[in-house]
Amino acid sequence: MAGLRVRPAGPLRGEITVPGDKSITHRALLLGALADGTTEIAGALDGEDCRATARAVAALGVSVDAAPGAPVWRVGGRGLGGLAEPPDVLDCGNSGTSMRLLAGVLAGQPFLAILTGDASLRRRPMRRVVEPLIQMGAQCWGRQGGAYPPLAIRGGSLRGIDITLPVASAQVKSALLLAGLWAGGPVCVTEPALSRDHTERMLGAFGVRLDRQGTTVRLAPGQALRAAPVRVPGDISSAAFFVVAALVVPGSDLVIRGVGLNPTRTGLLDALREMGGDIAVAPREEGGGEPMGDLRVRASRLRGTRIAGAMIPRLIDEIPALTLAAACAEGTTRIADAAELRVKEVDRIAALAGELGRLGARVDEEPDGLTIHGLGAGGAAGLTGAVCRSRGDHRMAMVLAVAGLVARGETVVHETECIETSFPGFTERLAHLVPGAGAAAP
Ligand code: S3P
Q1: What is the pTM of this model?
Q2: In angstroms, rounded to a whole number, what is the distance separating the alpha carbons of residues 129 and 167?
Q3: Which atom of ligand 1 is nearest to the CA of 344?
């Protein structure tokens, strides 16, 4: 199994870009498949998760031209009536977004499809999407009464739905909106707090009208999609690791170009600024309804804060990076209302407390999040290199590698191959920015 050895080796300086946004790439592939006409996707994320969606879309009879390294991917849309029964099980790998969004699409199809994934995905909760799709009229089965994958779905004629979700979830919201494209009545989804709205924005760009009021979105029935070009900005969830690295490694001054700045995704920047982080944002022109810009991050003295409530969905995937920042800050940080972390690729509450704990970070597990007792002085005074492992979670692997930049001595991170799911080229960027910091470990 692959691994990484990391040691402190000086500041992060210069400029980087990060690969395309994972959430937006999934949606571009799916909406492109359902549209009339060919969708060109520029800057797609060529990572394992998005490849899983691309393969599933192809298995549904859609032509996907996505050669490795190609700057533009092309999806030959089949329209809302053009998908075909897949000849085999659809394997979503590690990708919850692939499985949940595809479940929504398949609920509208008059054929049988089966979705499965790797061991981690087969442990993730699916009732949240299966139950409302059944209410809309689809037939869905999963292990343990519909709770876990594999899922079998036979769609058909669907009804509209008016639903209040118990947790903010872009994946569930998106699945229901996608199913709503085949429903006879409106689909109306209310969330406790606004989750990422890429599906809504991209549906708009493809000519579908949606009404939004606060945290409620409503899709009227009978609307077709028209292919539109998609320009995918850099993934702020990937940039997060370098943002935090530049804040905590003394002397750093790093520019990250072309990062997506959708306000439903920028909670990390707000939280880090609140903690005293020096982060300047230079907006750039929008691409297809998604704002983007350049970030300049300079090493800063951070102080603890409290993060809870509506902020959580705005930074849910960045909590690993944020936890490291908090570990290097002065004072205590409490992350609350984040029990969703327990059902991500791994239980991230347990994984962060356990693995960052091996490096000497003082991170307490709470039922709904974490309490982090900051070590101060950039963390370098307190973190010590150790052997740790990602537990198969890409974001755990990356945050542990970044922690190695501020931990005394050598840090060895085991099980780093999962980084490919979301951030191909992470290790190369680290090696380029901080020569001598990282090397492959057995
Ligand atoms: C995603 C939504 C979030 C996020 C995940 C990607 C998406 O999950 O954690 O990494 O692309 O819609 P939930 O919708 O389950 O909160």
Answers
A1: 0.98
A2: 12
A3: 9
